[in-house]
UniProtKB/TrEMBL annotation:
SMART domains: HTH_MERR. Keywords: DNA-binding, Repressor, Transcription, Transcription regulation. Pfam families: B12-binding_2 (PF02607), MerR_1 (PF13411). This is DNA-binding transcriptional regulator, MerR family. The lineage of its organism: Bacteria, Pseudomonadati, Bacteroidota, Cytophagia, Cytophagales. PANTHER family: MERR-FAMILY TRANSCRIPTIONAL REGULATOR, REDOX-CYCLING DRUG-SENSING TRANSCRIPTIONAL ACTIVATOR SOXR. Residues 175-300 form the B12-binding domain. Residues 3-72 form the HTH merR-type domain.
Length: 307
């Protein structure tokens, strides 16, 4: 069970600490306990209720009315109003509340609704990504348990895989060819999976090698597949002081393709890039770069798909 301070609740919910105190004292929406030093601490149920209350208040409901709702009535009201395609914060709050409740059907339903309203790519960029960022903050604070994190990761992985399967295949000889892989020991796959989808949706051919690939395998792959570009994501692997060595070895094995390097470990200021490497800071930067490389026919098809 999580133990949150009021500043934790403020950061995770977007509701100011002053407002949280008023809602607590005036309307009793939260039930904190006090430590031996008289400091308020809040639990998972408090955070989940606050997220739901904030969602309804952001939709124009009066706090005095929301405070009188039972837990079930509160959840039903949140579900019924979670269809606003432009209110990303509200949708993220709904996902967080469902995650804390380990409510897999609700998580899936909310993501499906976001995809239906926004399209798959915008649902990932504007809803799923902020959702994962909030989970990251909660993980660092010790407020998310491994089961909750695995539930979300596997659900999103399933959604991305389904979207990839729905993209019509292209012949590798006729388009730009990409190799996507994660370094040996790296298991954080969601960003790479989304890149896989984005490339395929834009008419590129992708050889997706996934997690935990020994870098030495790439030399033979480049010789046989002859990719135009190679993309990898470094989240937890290699160790920070080994990143430069990894990039240099990647360049040595694959000197011809353009190397796209993404992930927090790549953002170190002292990293020296070989001539054929591009450091990608944001996922939107990656998509912009891919758009520039996109075949004309695929660009037109993508525009039509978004309209």
């Amino acid at each position: 069970m999580g133990h949150f301070s009021i500043s934790d609740l403020e950061q995770l919910s977007g509701v100011k600490a002053h407002t949280i105190r008023i809602w607590e004292q005036r309307y009793g929406i939260l039930r904190p306990v006090r430590t031996a030093t008289n400091i308020r601490t809040y639990c998972d149920d408090d955070l989940r209720r606050l997220l739901n209350v904030a969602t309804l208040c952001n939709r124009g409901h009066r706090i005095s009315q929301v405070a009188r709702l039972s837990e079930q009535e509160l959840m039903d009201a949140v579900i019924s109003c979670n269809n606003d395609e432009n209110n990303y914060c509200q949708q993220v709050n709904g996902l967080l509340a469902a995650m804390l409740h380990m409510d897999e059907p609700q998580l899936s339903s909310l993501m499906n609704n976001a995809t239906r309203k926004l399209g798959f790519e915008d649902a990932i960029l504007h809803v799923a990504y902020p959702f994962l960022q909030r989970i990251g903050v909660m993980w660092q604070a010790g407020c998310v348990n491994p089961a909750q994190e695995h539930l979300v990761t596997n659900l999103l992985r399933q959604k991305i895989m389904a979207a990839i399967d729905a993209v019509p295949p292209v012949k590798p000889a006729e388009v730009r060819r990409w190799v996507l892989f994660l370094p040996e020991g790296e298991m954080h796959e969601l960003a790479l999976l989304f890149m896989n989808y984005a490339l395929r949706a834009r008419g590129h051919h992708v050889l997706y090698l996934g997690q935990n690939l020994p870098i030495t395998e790439l030399e033979a792959i480049c010789a046989s597949y002859e990719p135009h570009a190679i993309c990898t994501v470094m989240t937890a692997v290699p160790e920070r002081d080994k990143v430069q060595e990894f990039i240099d070895e990647l360049h040595r094995l694959c000197p011809s393709p353009t190397l796209f390097l993404y992930g927090p470990l790549v953002q170190q200021e002292n990293i020296r890039l070989p001539f054929n490497a591009i450091k990608v800071r944001l996922m939107t930067d990656f998509l912009a770069l891919v758009e520039e490389m996109q075949p004309t026919a695929a660009k037109e098809a993508l525009v039509l798909a978004k309209t």
